[in-house]
Structures
1.
Amino acid sequence: SKVMIEQQGSSYVVAVLTEGKQESCSLDLFLDLSEAKLKVVGKATVHLTGYFEVDDLEMGSDEEMAPAAKASPKASPKAAVSSSPK
């Protein structure tokens, strides 16, 4: 079976799998699934696994990515030191 990517009217073969010979293939592909489609041509069943990475441009501004600053603990009124003499 052939694993193919269809994008903008063109098809690209990214793996050819044959039972008993080439049964697996590791790929490192970055696809925009709104524009590309995965397709399998052949008789064999093909299982694909993978993950999605968030694009940096989709994350927003740098402020959203910056770690939150730790808030300093507030002093309780009882622990406040008085500077005036008694």
Note: The chain has one helix and three strands.
2.
Amino acid sequence: HRDFPPLPSSLRPMSAVRTLKGALAPARNALPRAVATSGARYAGRWTTEKVPMGPADPILGLNDAYNKDTFEKKMNLGVGAYRDDNGKPYLLPSVKEAEKRIVESGWNGVQQKEYAGITGIKEFCDASVKFAYGADSPALKENRLISAQVLSGTGGGRIAFEFYARFLGKGVPVYMPDPTWANHLPMAKDAGLSLQTYRYYDKNTYGLDFTGMCEDIKAAKDGSIFMLHACAHNPTGVDPTIEQWKEISALLKKKNHIVFLDMAYQGFASGDADKDAAALRMLVADGHDVMLAQSFAKNFGLYGERVGCLSMVGSTTEEAQRLLSQLKILIRPMYSNPPIHGARIVATVLDDPVLNKQWYAECKGMADRIIEMRTALKDGLAKEGSTRNWDHVVDQIGMFCFSGMTPEQVEKLKTEYHIYMTKNGRISMAGITTKNVGYLAHAMHAVTK
């Protein structure tokens, strides 16, 4: 017996009704006899016609096949997460020290796990925009820059696309580079935007199709949304030069296009965080009111903490505050407020002069290892006797190398050499070490000669 108040008559079970004398009697509208006596079930609500089986994620499927492979020399070149030269995950010492301080001393001296506000940890947001835009950014000094902590780059992008859909209209075109990170496409589509592409990668040169990109920027309707990778383009590793960025900026401004930047590799691309932010800072200096999604997964190794920042530049302080008010309205019913632990780690590292300097050195160390593996792979291919031009392996930048291998060659690498990568030939350079680069070079030469 539980001492609960009686249910109102409208909410009482339909399987029985109470008589005037208080006894229970079968209800007229009880469940069908077949259900009551034989335990038969109704047909499922979510039929195949209503809810079909969704396709498996290609990266997760690749990981599953790799994990089941028992070959000693197997290689996983599909996952976009940094590994050290032993093929192991790397916890940055600066991050470890920041976390130790937070656990031992609390956040700002207080041990608590309270909710953050809708826009997250203020210290994190302030440090993030200073890190990205530069401490001397006019937009920052003039209070025209607003920010919100978000669920890494994916969360930031999704909120950005929802903002565009709400205030520019459903079905508005958003132009993305061809190719782009696969998750960009459903993020924009699910927000109700119309997906369009602009030329970016030149399959003949394995580099940037700069002419095609400029032509497509010119041809797009005035005021269109253009999504750009700030540095270390995923999946190609091909970035415009700073001179090309200047031309791109001028074209975007002439057409009054709206600029959305995704920056997931600041510091990790070249080893120099300021150099990696050069395109963003130039676009802002040129007068573009950009929206920026930052991720701290790669450069801080905080993959599972989901740490990101979404920021917008307004033309005035008043406009910036209106933008912030609408970001809050979008975020509140979506996930209410962000997680706090990873954001506190990043804020601690960026705001502490000693940890900040230590992080810069550690991040450069990760970037340098990737660059060294690019050189080693190119040299290994030459040593194997390959006559193909592999200059793009070292010319590209960041975590990924767009190898130029065909899906058939990639499949052969998997079936004959137990080397796993995405079908488009994208190599995660973080999976290459001094111990396996020779084997990879041998296999790549074998399938491409």
Note: The longest strand covers residues 145-151.
